[in-house]
Design a protein that fits this description.
Layout (H helix, E strand, L loop, with lengths): L1 H19 L7 H40 L4 H28 L11 E7 L3 H21 L3 E9 L5 E9 L3 H5 L4 E7 L10 E11 L13 E6 L15 E6 L4 E5 L5 H25 L20 E4 L4 E4 L4 E3 L2 H5 L4 H18 L5
Parallel strand pairs: 4-9
Antiparallel strand pairs: 1-3, 1-5, 2-3, 4-5, 6-7, 7-8, 9-10, 10-11
């Protein structure tokens, strides 16, 4: 572990020197990348200092215990101090182990999210719309920017599917666990008999791929321009600003008509396409690694789920870690941090176990 700490501290010193160099500010993108790495490594340095301080306290408590002699009261006090110091050492050592775990290179990226109604018809579409509202409120609480790329609405106000971008510091690191099938159990407003229905929606969370991550060949793209659809009257876009991008080798199609600007729609559509193709390549690489995680989105069948939202009982259950919270409305209003923090802790525990460390 301490070899890893030494490497992290050496790298942190190199980064700090690089940031002080006059040429650092010449390339804003490179400067931002350096700052992100510094921000990731700084907690390692802080945790190492805290561990050394805890070890010093433990050594002092051990020395005090040896000096107590036959004084029973003094020995009891020294033993209590030693026990507290030992616990602090273990806590700081565990914190350092977690911080030294392999870093997901996508954690600092923005995300492309896609929600699709699954089993359940109109009720599934209404649930998909509720999930979009939940992520919108979560993003707003984090001061992240959310841009809709495309959406297909139902007459009842639900969503058959929606694609959107979320831009913000650490967006992927917090939202990556939302990928999968979400299940809802509730009594629909249209249900006269009061029976509980089960519906699903699938969520995909993709790291936004920059051109340096995945380069699109213009020869592989077919870009069509068409007139945006609207609700009529003033809302109809009378210019051809909507964009449809087709990736010819895969047949993948992305449309965007949310913006009045043709160029802005094109940028959004290309961002989504790049993220999808980047994810395909990433999964090919992960498939070669033992213990690959399951694919993000299943078939949408009711039996597949990562999380259940039960309205009659007011509870949310994440089935991956067995966590149940009886605060359904708060979660649906964007209070996702408690769930996400628990998932992060579980992931860290799995990584420590895989690395042969005791949790």
């Amino acid at each position: 572990m301490f070899e890893s700490v030494e490497g992290a501290l050496t790298r942190l010193s190199e980064l700090e020197r690089a940031l002080c160099a006059p040429e650092a500010a010449a390339d804003p993108r490179q400067f931002a990348a350096l700052m992100r790495e510094v921000k990731r490594l700084r907690p390692v340095a802080d945790a190492f200092c805290a561990l050394r301080a805890a070890e010093a306290d433990r050594d002092a408590a051990q020395a005090l215990l040896q000096e107590c002699g036959a004084d029973r009261e003094a020995r009891e006090m020294a033993e209590a101090e030693l026990a507290a110091a030992e616990e602090a050492v273990q806590t700081q050592a565990q914190r350092l182990r977690v911080l030294l775990l392999p870093h997901d290179e996508n954690d600092d990226k923005n995300v492309v999210m896609e929600i699709r109604a699954g089993a359940g018809g109109d009720e599934a579409a209404l649930f998909a719309a509720r999930l979009f509202r939940m992520y919108s409120m979560f993003a707003q609480a984090k001061n992240w920017r959310l841009d809709v790329v495309s959406a297909s609405e139902t007459q009842l106000g639900g969503l058959k599917e929606i694609s959107f971008l979320i831009e913000g510091e650490g967006a992927y690191s917090r939202l990556k666990f939302e990928s999968g099938v979400h299940r809802v159990q509730r009594v629909p407003e249209t249900e006269s008999g009061g029976r509980i229905h089960t519906s699903t929606a699938t969520v995909a969370v993709l790291p936004e791929a920059e051109e340096v991550d995945f380069e699109l060949d213009p020869a592989d793209l077919q870009i069509d321009v068409f007139r945006s659809s609207g609700a009529g009257g003033q809302k109809v876009n009378k210019t051809s600003s909507a964009i449809r991008v087709t990736h010819l080798p895969t047949g993948m199609v992305v449309e965007c008509q949310d913006e009045r600007s043709q160029y802005r729609n094109k940028d959004k559509a290309l961002a989504v396409l790049r993220a999808r193709l980047f994810e395909i390549e990433r999964k090919k690489q992960e498939a070669e690694i033992a213990g690959e995680r399951r694919a993000q989105v299943g078939t949408g069948d009711r039996s597949e789920r990562i999380r259940t939202y039960n309205f009659p009982q007011g509870r949310v259950t994440d089935h991956r870690i067995g966590l149940t919270l009886y605060k359904l409305e708060a979660v649906l209003d964007g209070a996702l941090d408690e769930l996400i923090d628990a998932l992060l802790a579980a992931e860290a525990a799995e990584k420590l176990k895989a690395a042969g460390e005791s949790v």
